[in-house]
Amino acid sequence: MNVQTDLDADIGRVARESRVIAVVGLSPREDRPSWGVARYLQSQGFRVIPVNPGHAGETILDETCYGTLSDIPRDAGVDMVDIFRRSEAVGGVVDEALASLPDLRVIWTQLGVRDDDAAERAQAKGMRVVQDRCPKIEFPRYL
Q: What are the TM regions of this chain, as residue ranges (predicted)?
């Protein structure tokens, strides 16, 4: 099996098995890509938990926004983190996710975003990692 086939299989499993997705960097503005992706995920039955320190305590897409991943209640069932941040911020987000989300199984970074060192740390903890992809583009093939 080649690398692309393995990645496609991983994406398919993520699309079918994930249920609660924390979106780091989710904007309340409807014209932002993060909002469009989160709205799509909700329309497909996923629960989306917004994470954005500038909007903590507000409601985005009918969900309470948290300032950090650590602020999300541990029993929320977050099994995937979708990162809408610059590549330089990914390492810290991944480390916080690994430390604070007990049900976590997937780290996902959006188009143009990657941190191979953080990906290796997450994979070493048993996480599936998808980088430089968008679930709004990838998931429809599997749902």
A: none
Token pair of 130 as six digits: 């998808």
Instruction: Kindly report the CATH number assigned to the domain that includes residue 49.
Output: 3.40.50.720
Q: Is the pTM of this model over 0.85?
A: yes
Helices (H), the chain: 3-17, 33-43, 87-100, 116-124, 135-138
Instruction: Give per-residue pLDDT as tens, 85-104.
Output: 999 999 999 999 999 999 99
- Rounded to whole angstroms, the Cα distance separating 143 from 39 reads 16
Structure token pair of residue 16: 């079918």
Q: Are 128 and 105 in contact (CB under 8 A)?
A: yes
Q: What is the pLDDT at residue 69?
A: 98
Q: Tell me how many domains the chain contains.
A: 1
The tens digit of pLDDT for each residue in 55-83 reads 999 999 999 999 999 999 999 999 999 99
Domain extent, residue 47, equals 3-141
